[in-house]
Design goal:
The protein is built from no helices and 6 strands. The chain is mainly β. A 6-stranded antiparallel β-sheet has the order 4-5-1-2-3-6, with no helix packed on it.
């Protein structure tokens, strides 16, 4: 687990790896895989104020499975694990169980 607290309206997520085997049974090398868009929320930022001066509230919580934009955010490596630090606006939706 990453030991980091994002600042402001940022969210730390960990991408959930896509399948390494295609639907036809072909093993895909890392270079052929697209960045997965499904991720798990690891940590939330400190919040702050929105453009109208109101307190900012997060629409996601730690542990949520979310869809994130493919190329949004900043990739970071912490304790040997890959994470993405992004703005809440880069989260496209929450996956339901």
């Amino acid at each position: 687990m990453a030991n980091i607290k994002p600042l402001g309206q940022r969210v730390l997520v960990k991408r959930i790896d896509a399948d390494e085997i295609s639907a036809g049974g072909i093993v895909l090398p890392d270079t052929a895989k697209e960045k997965p868009q499904e991720a798990e929320v690891i940590a939330l930022g400190t919040g702050g104020k929105d453009e109208n001066g109101n307190d900012f509230t997060f629409d996601v919580k730690v542990g949520d499975s979310v869809l994130v934009s493919k190329y949004g955010g900043t990739d970071v490596k912490l304790d040997g694990e890959d994470y993405v630090l992004l703005s809440q606006s880069d989260i496209l939706g929450i996956m339901s169980a």
